[in-house]
Amino acid sequence: MRRRTRSGRPRGAEVEWRRDTLRAYERVEWTRAEMEGWLIQQAFEGMLRAIEDGKEGRRRATQGTMAIAELAESVTSRICRFVGGGTFSRSSPFGYWHEDVRALGFLRPPWGLAFDALFDASCASEP
Amino acid sequence: MDADAILDNVRLVAAAFAAERAVRQQRRSIDRGDFDRLREAGFLLTGVPIDQGGIWESVRRSTRPVCEMLRTLASGDSSVALVCAMHPSVLSFWLATPDAPAAFQDGWRAQRRHFFETAREGAWWGTITSESGSGGDISRTAATARRAASDGPYRLTGQKQFGSGSGMASYMITAAVPEGEPAADLFVLDMRDVAWDGSTGVTLVAPWDGHGMAATQSHAMAFADVPVVRSAWPGAVPTLMGANGGFMSATFTAVIAGIAQTAVETARQHVRRRHDSMRAYERVEWSRAEMEGWLIQQAYEGILRAVERGEDGRRQALLGKMAIAELAESMTGRLCRIVGGGTFSRSSPFGHWHEDVRALGFLRPPWGLAYDNLFEWSASPPA
How far, rounded to the nearest angstrom, does the alpha carbon of residue B266 sit from its chain's CA centroid? Predict the structure, then answer.
């Protein structure tokens, strides 16, 4: 069953329902959010391809993990600002999703270790 | 000559260009000899269908090979690659649409055959469509096309800018509103041996002075009663752009993806020499730059795959183009900060690359129009 807003509209319909009254900032934030969402899918596909090809799979997977961690935080934050202050409510799913995706950057390897590992892997990679 | 053979030839040309990078990045004008080499390499055949001796098959089958040529070429010379990208992009309006409605079919087929033949015989195609204040929106053109007699030739009057390849392209497409009609249409200018002093109706208004893509001769021109040929399928601009299916965005993006890749590879040599003495900030910036460089390549691959699937290709190509435009600016900025203040020097390649990649967001459709399109297509993707 699709989750619904307090007004009873399906979540996915927010943009369509409000499209004629959206302010410039909201239109741009939504477009950026879609762009980042699209990038996340490309990064995820890229990780899978690198692992499947057996070419620097570990390094590319870490790179993809960190990139997606940052993009996912950004995209869910944009969506919260776009949908409105109601996303602070614990009855809205968006705030939960924003907190949920923040987990990725702390999952193994967490931020600091991941960046050190990426730097070392870069220096050790084939010229 | 098939696409693989042309790509091999382009690799050799690009490698030769890369060896001359320091000199090339100082240029502010086109060297026709570069384009003669690329014609001999077979690049012009990207604008010719297979049944006329070229390599074009379809948007779905030809986007990847053409983009790979452009990406490769960009590793050697950004400006040459961008001018080259215009050739197949412009001709794709005809390449991607073999058939027109019955009323225009004969004329359309004859025009296609003629245009492709010019490319096969050695003509470069380009575009000079943009106008100041139009925001890249063809429908907002203030240029007009009138004709003295109902069946006479059209004549173009208007101000145009960003004509990449001016002086090298034999033919350039443009947009204008035909007299008595409500909407803009496509026209073709024959720019061969045309003087720019106003004597033929063409006046060079402002030579290109871009911070980046410095040697593209993307001049601004004024046209006064200049003969033009109208698209043989009148009023079909939206249809032709739709059939293009993201090809144009993909070609421009391929150039920037190539520059970005070369910039990262070049910076890596710097990092390898210094990695034991790099400060925390430099280490993190480098890791972020590599991450963005990797994302650019994944987004580029995502564009190609979307176009090849033929599903939502136009929207996804634009999503990718805009994402890569932002990533490439960010990434080359980071590289400059890592490598150091020397990148401000015009003798360093990094500052040039940073300015070159900034071009992508301004290429058709430019920032504002692209964001508007993406927002509109979010609810109803283009066919």
Answer: 24
